[in-house]
Design brief:
2 domains; single chain; 6-stranded parallel β-sheet; Diaminopimelate Epimerase, Chain A, domain 1; alpha/beta; 12 strands; binds manganese (II) ion; 6-stranded mixed β-sheet; 12 helices
Length: 344
Amino acid sequence: MNGYASTATIAQIAQRLRGAKHIAVLTHARPDGDAAGSVLAAVRALRAVGLRADGFFCGSVDPNIRALAREGETMHGNPPTMDPNIDLALLVDTGSWNQVEPLDLWLKSMAGRVVGLDHHGRGDPIASDRVIDTSAAAATQIVAQLVEALGIDLRKHGGRHSIAEALFTGLATDTGWFRFQSVTPAVLALASRLLEAGVDHVYLHQLLEENGRPARLGITACALSSVTLHREGRVALMLLGLGDFAATGASSDDIGGIVNIPLTIGGIGMSCLLSEQSSGVTKCSFRSKSAAEGQPSIDVNAFAAQFGGGGHVQAAGARISKPLAEARALVESALQAVVLKGHS
Ligand SMILES: [Mn+2]
């Protein structure tokens, strides 16, 4: 995975997009706020300058995320049906083959005709021309540069289902609503411009964070009652089995954010949530607290990499192709080696 770095500039990507006849804008399966926001902002911007562009989502899509898109902006499917006339793909918020599995064959058929914008530290050379900026708090922070390079005035694109709304969605969700260390003056300056354009941030917060189904309460209770503490109370581990989902009527769409709850406790620096999937795979989410007061963050990206996963220093995930009990044993054993404190 070394060598996952920029191979082009924003201006070069903009030029390739301008020369395309029909652009597919794609992201990782099960798009989150940043992935969906990046796709939607790009589709809207490309259409605003007269280009033909469609967004594609694959894997299960949270209904609240789906509500961000206007009818006809994105196509869904697993894999989605791709129009044979598409001559360029724009891949956003990922560059890893294992995150785009439903699109795998299609993307391979498009070799050399894929451009990418990403802020992850690990990835594969799916996009030949790509901008990788790991300092960006969200992929939409990079998409915002593309929007600018296309000559779009954000002030004219700020209402519901607008370019600015999609950009703000990614920026807010990938920074934990502006709490994480990745929040810089540039992030807040962009957020400020987006609010000036007319983004309704309260609506977006309610749509994405305060719109869960009642079953979420039951599955949260299951997760919390499963907590075990490791490494002298510095690491929390929670487990959700298929029985928990059956008993509460919850699905994997209902568990977003539960992994963060143990981090509300002083002294807990890392939290893990393992949830059993009907496919026999165990989905793992890892989170750590921001570095503060001289305490570095625990690097959950490196932790997830041991299981073939990844993400960011403070938020990462992995899929372990083993049942819950075996995945638990693997994670517990790996936890023994986690570096809790960096250099002092
Ligand atoms: Mn992202």
